[in-house]
Amino acid sequence: MAARVLASTDGVRFVMAGSGDMMDKMVRLAAKKGIADKFHFTGFLKGRNVYEMLAESDVYMMPSVSEPFGISPLEAMQCGTPSIISKQSGCAEILDHAIKTDYWDIDAMADYIHAIVKYPAMYKSLRENGLAEIDKIRWEYAGQKVRAIYDKVLGR
Question: N or C: more exposed end of the chain, with fewer CB within 10 A?
């Protein structure tokens, strides 16, 4: 997917954060494809470093095969960073202003990255609408919804 973005979009760099069991494979894959100079592998980030990286990014992507909830796209949107997430992630159910694609559709992911980077109006719209959406999400509201479901089931 990154190679496809780089083939059509100038000035793009990728950051891969984390230290999972696939990291070494990803480093080798970037080298094999001849794009390692366009990647920065940070390893595990925490605290302030996470928010600094998100705030400096033009696009955040979470192409997870399975992510029961996935809070990192919310953190990215909170920093004003447009997000691309897999339709299969749990947060896809609650986010209206994140771009959603199938985890296996690398063509769509590449096209969306290109569009966000190339078209300022798209970037601005996703940024502003994402910030407004995140402002309205509260754990308290989620808890109230769960409570209402329990009350309904129990006939209260």
Answer: C
Give every CB contact of residue 31 below 8 A, 6+ residues apart in sequence. Answer: none
Which tens digit of pLDDT belongs to each residue from 40-50?
999 999 999 99
Domain with 106, as residue range(s), is: 2-153
The per-residue pLDDT for range 138-150, each reduced to its tens digit, is 778 778 888 999 9
Question: What gap in Å lies between CA 103 and CA 13, rounded to an integer?
Answer: 21
Sheet holding 60-62, edge to edge: 60-62, 83-86, 99-101
Measure the CA dihedral 87/91/96/100, to 10°.
-20
* Whole-angstrom distance, CA of residue 133 vs CA of residue 1: 28
Q: Which two tokens stand for residue 132?
A: 């407004």
First-to-last C-alpha distance (Å) of the chain: 51
Q: pTM of this prediction?
A: 0.85
Number of structural domains (the chain) is 1
